[in-house]
Amino acid sequence: MSELENELLNIVGLNELKVQLRKWAKGMLLDERRRALGLKVGARRPPHMAFLGNPGTGKTMVARILGKLLHMVGILPTDKVTEVQRTDLVGEFVGHTGPKTRRKIQEAEGGILFVDEAYRLIPMQKADDRDYGLEALEEIMSVMDSGKIVVIFAGYSEPMKRVIASNEGFCRRVTKFFHFSDFNSEELAKILHIKMNHQTEESLLYGFKLHGSCSVDAIARLIEKETTEKQRKEMNGGLVDPMLVNARENLDLRLDFNCINADELRTITLEDLEAGIKLLTP
């Protein structure tokens, strides 16, 4: 459970989802104890889900963490997450969509199939238009009772209603709906801190750190001051990466070329962050 809690620290907000993950983890551990005592208990079914919310609210990132967590607690045999969109599933001609979708399903077996912008499978159209998105959805639905895969459908809340209404078995199979709210300034500041603390070697920010003055409160005040509510709602977590990249560039501009102080060379200040976020404002 401690490993689970460490992973949950990387998810900002989404308390409802965190509670559900703790239920699954504790349930799996209790099932192990039940079996150790000779009790016979039924196997848990993989939970299919819908992630509803605006872009940048962390749906894809949470799906990746979820893959690790469901594997960790024994619900899935692997931690792989196969991310797909309409173009990965739907063919242009009759007979193309079924095989194309089945290949992706097979690729995802043992893990999560994450269908991003799932509402694009059921576009708004006239009755006489021919579209193969529904065929792809039906292919996915046909394997959701097999127990070999967890499917997560993701997209804007309102258009996703088309997907839910398009197949009568949707709500029977997809039993968990999680709403991803827009991030406020404090949550965006927490995300920035998490990103800086978990940089990989491939990241442009790898090896850099925040100055001590860059507390969550200070960054939250900066974001609140330099962005509009509309901008925060449109960008959400997508605001953080370009802000950090711009801040690093400002650090390079600010430093004297002859600087040999290792700490100064890798420390991003509140001034750098302010310059970085101002470049995002039209």
TrEMBL record:
KW ATP-binding (keyword) present: yes
Record-linked SUPFAM superfamilies: P-loop containing nucleoside triphosphate hydrolases
GO molecular function, one term: ATP hydrolysis activity
Membrane-spanning segments: none
Xref: Gene3D superfamilies: 1.10.8.60, P-loop containing nucleotide triphosphate hydrolases
Superkingdom of this protein's organism: Eukaryota
Domain AAA+ ATPase: 45-179
Entry-linked InterPro entries: AAA+_ATPase (IPR003593), ATPase_AAA_core (IPR003959), CbxX/CfxQ (IPR000641), CbxX/CfxQ_RuBisCO_ESX (IPR050773), P-loop_NTPase (IPR027417)
Pfam families to which the protein is assigned, alphabetical: AAA
Name by which UniProt lists this protein: AAA+ ATPase domain-containing protein
Keyword Ribosomal protein on entry: no
Keyword annotations: ATP-binding, Nucleotide-binding
Family, as annotated: Belongs to the CbxX/CfxQ family.
